[in-house]
Amino acid sequence: MIRVDALEPAFARAAVAWAARLQLPLAGEAEFALQLGRQGLQFVELSPGAAGPIRADFVAGPVAHRRQFGGGSGQMIARAAGLQPGIRPTVLDATAGLGRDAFVLAQLGCALTLIERAPLIAALLEDGLQRALSDPVVATIMERMQLICGDAIALMQAWTGDPPQVIYLDPMFPQRDKSALVKKEMRLFRALAGDDADAPALLAAALALAANRVVVKRPRKAPAIAGDKPGYTLEGKSSRFDIYPKRALKAKGG
Fold first, then answer.
1. Are 246 and 213 in contact (CB under 8 A)?
2. For 133, how many CA atoms within 13 A lie in the half-sphere containing its CB?
3. Which of 27, 90, 103, 249 has the fewest CB atoms below 10 angstroms from its CB?
4. In angstroms, what CA-CA distances link 177 with 11, 17, 53, 173, 193?
5. Residues in the chain with pLDDT values less than 70
6. Strands (E), 17-107
7. 31 near 1, Cβ under 8 Å?
8. Taking the model in full, what pTM does it have?
9. Do residues 117 and 150 touch, judged by C-beta distance below 8 A?
């Protein structure tokens, strides 16, 4: 069970609104809690000895460090998405999570649409995006990120606008990097979303919609998603990117 907690009386009204929106209780025994306080919305396990909370934070912490020291357009995710001089594709991140990978691409100049189907994860992300809009350092980056809460497969199949040039997928996989941070986040994420058993259907929908390429992030030793085989792969220490090219990305006017 998940409940909603206000960490201070000043946040009680907002907590009531979140509880109503997400159809969660405000009291009672619970294993997890969605908490609202000075640092925004966070999700935490309540059992003794549990790890700390997770939240979407685009201003401080690991995301800020990556923004300042991540390596710019030389980062593997940027190369996987096809970023080159004069090329900043439109990107649909269909498995947005806490938005960290999307933020990297937005920082580098791409326009991002983010889809997250787990309502509580979408709530964390929405809260993080809203808080970051008030920060003068990252506000212009956040303006390139638009969030949709819903089922990515259905949304892609019913897409009516211009197709995104690149679709980015990072479906949940049972075996992940064993660092403490990832273990904590994966435990809490699985409480909210579980594993993505429909990853093959997600990939098929992405391949049908993307104008130029689909990029799938995987643990380095994990098998490719069942279905079409990737055209090529970029491999790092703990993860890799499987790239499914459809047509070449070109600079504007090219």
1. yes
2. 10
3. 27
4. 35, 36, 19, 10, 18
5. 64-66, 68-71, 173-187, 189-196, 253-254
6. 32-37, 40-45, 91-93
7. yes
8. 0.91
9. yes
Q: Which CATH architecture has domain 61-245?
A: 3-Layer(aba) Sandwich (3.40)
Contact 67, 41 (CB under 8 A): no
Strand ranges, E, within 54-206: 91-93, 112-116, 145-149, 166-169
Residues 6+ apart with CB under 8 A from 19: 3, 4, 25, 26
List Cα–Cα distances, 45 to 117, 177, 205, in angstroms.
Answer: 21, 20, 34
Look up residue 194 and give its two tokens.
């579980």
Give the residue extent of every domain in the chain.
Answer: 2-45, 61-245
pLDDT tens column, 214-224: 999 999 889 99
Strands (DSSP E) contained in the chain are: 2-6, 32-37, 40-45, 91-93, 112-116, 145-149, 166-169, 213-219, 232-235, 239-245
pLDDT tens across 37-52, in order?
Answer: 999 999 998 988 887 8
